Amino acid sequence: MASDTATLNTTTLAPTGGMVTAARIYHLIVALVGTSALTISLIISATSPVSGGALNGIIFTLSYFTVWSNIVALVVNWLLFANPDRDGKAFRWIRMTGLVMIVITGLIYALILAASANPCGWGVYTNLGFHYIVPWATLLGFLVFGPRPRFTWDLVPKMMIIPVIWLAYTLLHGLMTVNAPGNTCSNVPLAQGVNFYPYPFITLDYDGTGGPSPLIPGVEAGGYAGIAINLVIIIILGLVMASIFVGLDRLLSRGTKPTPL
Q: What residues are paired with 178 via a beta bridge?
């Protein structure tokens, strides 16, 4: 029986013994990095002379997918700090959602956005936390500490709920005429009376090209058709990423299926 129990603990990868403490410390560090990066970013946005006011600066900061994904990831890390063996329908959903969103954030930033980034001051820390530490530390925590098995195939489409809400909000917000905060690091002033989109690949008329910057070179179109193409690519990437996590969850737990809830 002792051997069977040890095998069960290994395949499900729920931290036991000293690993519980290690998992708590690990998730606490990741959660603190994410929480501090978010707090500092909001303070910078609220106090920047080119933010258009504290509320305007905060709203725009909270409009980025990066921030949404980091909020979900830090919530998950706080939950796992409190209980490294956590389970439940809501947890399984937010765990997969957080993993997919934060890994996509890390990938898109590294591959597309990092080259044009120009952080300065405390922004260097928030950039490091948002785009490097939290994404890859969250992924590493899943691989090392689990807990698993937790993922089922029905979670794959459900994982898209928060990203789709963000996409809808972003497109509706882009239709409004707003005052977009500038950037003191790049000497970009407040832009008054503009249509704001947070990323080049979702901007209706990026750099006067008549369409968004393509996520895949050559796969592009003008106006909303170009945005639609990029959104389809993002949705496919999310579904593929979620499917990979289901596979990893099953593989690393040696085929053991999650407990039905």
A: 194
